[in-house]
Amino acid sequence: MSLQKKTIWITGASSGIGEAIAYEFNKKGAHLILSARRVEELERVKESCENAEDTVKILPLDLSDQDAMPAKTDQALEFFGSIDMLINNGGISQRAYAIDSDMDTIRRVMEVNYFGTVALTKAVLPHMVEQNSGHVVVVSSVMGKIGTKHRSAYAASKHALHGWFDCLRQEMYEHGIDVTLVCPGFVKTNVTINALTADGGRHNKMEDAQANAMSAEEFAKKLIPQLARKKEEIFIGGSELMAVYLKRLSPWVLNKVLRKVKVT
Ligand SMILES: NC(=O)c1ccc[n+]([C@@H]2O[C@H](COP(=O)([O-])OP(=O)(O)OC[C@H]3O[C@@H](n4cnc5c(N)ncnc54)[C@H](OP(=O)(O)O)[C@@H]3O)[C@@H](O)[C@H]2O)c1
Fold first, then answer.
1. How far, in Å, is the centroid of ligand 1 from the Cα of 161?
2. In the prediction, which pLDDT does 264 show?
3. Is 180 near ligand 1, meaning CB less than 6 Å away?
4. Average pLDDT in the 182-193 region?
């Protein structure tokens, strides 16, 4: 896949996985549109890119503001005239027991991770259908395939993405549009620091699993070639990926294991 001058719109590009993906695509000569809420962080990412003035644009957006997505898409199209790949990466995690979690917190996770991603994709799709090509990528999680303690709203939002985007893939086949769901295991980012607590506060703790995981740069390097192959699902991580395969082979064994292991 030649990425030279292909336009790639990345959400959650102000840190972590989205930032690392942006640098990888920038090195390959793609045109980038970087989105997230924190403008100063997006500026920092842009400044770290090569030839940024000509090839990198910033488009701040809040995924919980779904009504804004059609206008944001119009703005995105004005930058380079097309969108070849949309990488729905922006998201928020959770660290709280289900029984303690406020409904507002549960809804907030769903608004950002699920409804925000769906709304942005729906805004971009008519353009991709018109050009008869496109690639929609969603950064889900291993938690889109299994469930563990402390992550009920997060896992629900990621599972929901699989349902919606699996259906979309069937509908978009005749329009030449590919859909890829990416399931990272643990990646060393601020995701647990930014995770929501039961009452919607900030978890503010880097959990051990994240601290000892692969870097976002390594993750991005592994991701790009697999995206080029337009795989339908991509799994990148360490031994935690075993849980996904065990869920398929023997869900009751997985449940027994997960009940016993320390999950942070
Ligand atoms: N790190 C992991 O171990 C891991 C594992 C599985 C899946 N993932 C997924 O990977 C994706 C990226 O996370 P990360 O690990 O890179 O964590 P991160 O560093 O916390 O990045 C999250 C990104 O999402 C953006 N974001 C959060 N809320 C937003 C909102 N309301 N509107 C727009 N953008 C928003 C943040 O930007 P602003 O704050 O500037 O808006 C930030 O750029 C997420 O979807 C996450 O669920 C991560």
1. 15
2. 75
3. no
4. 97
Q: By percentage, how much of the chain surpasses pLDDT 90?
A: 95
Q: How far is CA 8 from CA 25, 31, 104, in A?
A: 8, 6, 33
93 touches ligand 1 (CB under 6 Å): yes
Instruction: Answer yes or no: is 26 within a domain.
Output: yes
H helix runs in 96-250, sequence order: 103-110, 117-131, 152-172, 208-211, 216-228, 242-249
**12 within domain boundaries:** yes
- Helix or strand (DSSP H, E) at 236: strand 233-236
Number of domains in the chain: 1
Beta bridge partners of 235: 183
**Residue 211 domain boundaries:** 7-239
The whole-number pLDDT of residue 146 equals 98
Look up the pTM and report it. Answer: 0.98
Domain with 171 in it: what CATH number? 3.40.50.720
